[in-house]
């Protein structure tokens, strides 16, 4: 049996289900977010992503995903790509993070992200650990967690679910709510 929408091996999914392991996030709403820079790719071109610089433009949707080119992660990237114009209209930057290498992410940024947003390489899982976004059963792999970070560098919203289905809708709604309450 093959799971279509899971980007983890069946055994890992079953172990998580039976062990009660669900996606989680330690950074609570209102918590300060760790600053980071990382090698990233957008539209097949590598560059250095800086959270601090991105926050100068507005909120950042920082989403962690387990592995590029797996079915669930590809679907989630397609969903974020389709919604990127809406995020951009709200002055929000979208960036995905996984422990894939930069060469893989250059391809993923074209094929799955459709040249719309950046994906950052977290080789060594440093960023994942800072955001408590490492998969508990496989700590060198990201759990599926999405953060919306305010321009002031605090957590506005957290959504944690191994399913890729609601990450885009929920983070977009959080950014819309931030925009509606932001000083004019």
Please provide a brief summary of the model.
By secondary structure, the protein is of the alpha+beta class. The protein has a single domain, classed as 3-Layer(aba) Sandwich (Glutaredoxin), CATH 3.40.30.10. The chain has helices at residues 10-19, 51-55, 71-89, 102-111, 126-130, 167-181; strands at residues 37-42, 45-50, 60-64, 93-98, 118-121, 134-135, 138-142, 145-149, 155-160.
Describe this structure in words.
35% of the residues lie in helices and 24% in strands. The protein has 184 residues and is α+β, with helices and mostly antiparallel strands. It has one domain (38-179): Glutaredoxin. The protein has a seven-stranded mixed β-sheet with strand order 2-1-5-4-3-8-9. Strands 6-7 form a two-stranded antiparallel sheet. The longest helix is centred in the middle third of the chain and has 19 residues, at 71-89.
List the helices and strands and how they pair.
Blueprint: H1 10-19, E1 37-42, E2 45-50, H2 51-55, E3 60-64, H3 71-89, E4 93-98, H4 102-111, E5 118-121, H5 126-130, E6 134-135, E7 138-142, E8 145-149, E9 155-160, H6 167-181
Parallel strand pairs: 3-4, 4-5
Antiparallel strand pairs: 1-2, 1-5, 3-8, 6-7, 8-9
**Strands in their spatial order, largest beta sheet:** 2-1-5-4-3-8-9
Number of strands: 9
Say which CATH homologous superfamily is assigned.
Glutaredoxin
Per CATH, what is the topology?
Answer: Glutaredoxin
- What is the overall pLDDT average? 87
Order of helices and strands: HEEHEHEHEHEEEEH
Helix content: 25-40%
Task: Tell me the number of structural domains.
Answer: 1
As a percent range, the share of strand residues is 15-25%
For the record, the CATH class is Alpha Beta
The value of Rg in angstroms is 15 Å
Under the CATH scheme, the architecture is: 3-Layer(aba) Sandwich
Q: Segments where pLDDT lies below 50 for 5+ residues? A: 1-23
Number of helices: 6
In one word, what is the shape? globular
Structural class: alpha+beta
Euclidean distance between termini CA atoms: 53 Å
Q: What about the largest sheet?
A: 7 strands, mixed
């Amino acid at each position: 049996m093959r799971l279509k929408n899971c980007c983890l091996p069946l055994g890992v999914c079953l172990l998580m289900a039976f062990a009660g392991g669900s996606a989680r996030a330690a950074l609570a709403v209102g918590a300060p977010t760790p600053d980071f820079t990382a090698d990233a790719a957008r539209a097949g071109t590598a560059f250095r992503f800086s959270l601090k610089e991105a926050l100068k433009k507005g909120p950042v949707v920082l989403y962690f995903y387990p592995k590029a080119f797996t079915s669930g992660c590809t679907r989630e990237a397609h969903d974020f790509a389709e919604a990127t114009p809406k995020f951009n209209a709200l002055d929000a930057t979208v960036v995905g993070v996984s422990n894939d290498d930069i060469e893989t992410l250059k391809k993923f940024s074209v094929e799955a992200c459709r040249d719309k947003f950046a994906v950052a390489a977290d080789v060594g899982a440093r960023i994942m650990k800072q955001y408590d976004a490492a998969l508990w059963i496989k700590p060198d792999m990201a759990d599926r967690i999405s953060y919306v970070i305010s321009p002031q560098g605090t957590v506005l919203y957290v959504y944690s679910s191994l399913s890729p289905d609601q990450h885009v809708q929920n983070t977009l709604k959080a950014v819309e709510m931030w925009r509606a309450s932001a000083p004019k």
